[in-house]
Amino acid sequence: MPEDRVPDAKTIWLFRERLTKKGIVKQLFHGFEYQLQLKGLAARKGQIVDASFIEAPRQRNTREENKDIKAGITPESFAENNHKASQKDVDARWTKKNNEVHFGYKVHVAIDNENKLIRDYDVTSAEVHDSQVFIELLADNSSADVWADSAYQSEASTLELYASGYRNKVHKKARRNKPLSVKQQEMNSKKSKTRARVEHVFGSMENEQGGMFVRTIGHTRAAVKIGLMNLAYNMRRMVSLQRRGASVIC
Predict the structure, then answer these.
(1) Exposure b/e, 181-205, CB count within 10 A at least 16 = b
(2) How far apart are CA 163 and CA 161, in angstroms?
(3) In sequence order, what DSSP letters do the residues of 175-189 get, joined into one string?
């Protein structure tokens, strides 16, 4: 109820820790899918796949420490200082995109075109290329159409989509000495009108859910925090869709 007391930060932290230890956030997320089905919000009109960076507190490590971390080795300085080690995120990674530097993780999502609800997701470190998490995100939908930007375009993904019975609406990608034709550019522009709907999801999280970042340590805790962000978005979106439906009926 609106008049109920809001749990303090410590209570929320403890609750999230319990979820982390039980490893059930993905189960909760998919469990809510059943509630969406009961409300008549099944996935329809195809699906859109995209990814966004989730920033983490930036680490101040030496070059030698970063080299060990990338190699999957615990730096000697961490092993000698338990307090220091507990504050270091050895799972988050640095990456660069469009001249912007990012540190942390990446959330990969598949939304349905009609309702803009997240139907599945995955969490990786930031350097993982979008195309490495693609086909496995695709969920049940009333339509076989799949949209994604050109980062997902490859011969392998084209074959996988075809073999799985999907209709490929992924943006075409220009290659060295082989620019896109006028027709291909026009088709990309047409696809963008639908594909851009996934940007609204990330925009909602950024502007209405406190931002796309985590202050946790390690992939496991980050995945829990991000999974709860996705679940909270779907809950908010469900309420919005229900209100919209009620206003149409009235």
Answers:
(1) eeeeeeebeebeeebebbeebbeeb
(2) 6
(3) BTTBPPPHHHHHHHH
Handedness of CA 205, 207, 212, 217 (dihedral sign): negative
The pTM (predicted TM-score) of the whole model is 0.90
Closest CA to 230 of 222, 218, 240, 241: 222
Q: Which SS3 state, helix, strand or coil, does residue 50 take?
A: strand
50-80: pLDDT as tens digits: 999 999 998 887 788 888 888 878 787 777 6
Return the beta strands (E) in 57-216 as ranges: 93-97, 100-112, 118-125, 145-148, 167-170
Please name the residue that has the structure tokens 């375009």. 153
- The helix (run of H) or strand (run of E) holding residue 46 is none
In this structure, what token pair is assigned to residue 216? 């946790």
pLDDT in tens, 227-239: 999 999 999 999 9
Tell me phi and psi for residue 67, to 5 degrees.
-65, -45
Q: How far is CA 181 from CA 110, 149, 158, 191, in A?
A: 29, 17, 19, 15
Residue that has been written with the tokens 């969406």 in this structure? 36
Which domains does the chain carry?
Answer: 23-56+92-249 (3.30.420)
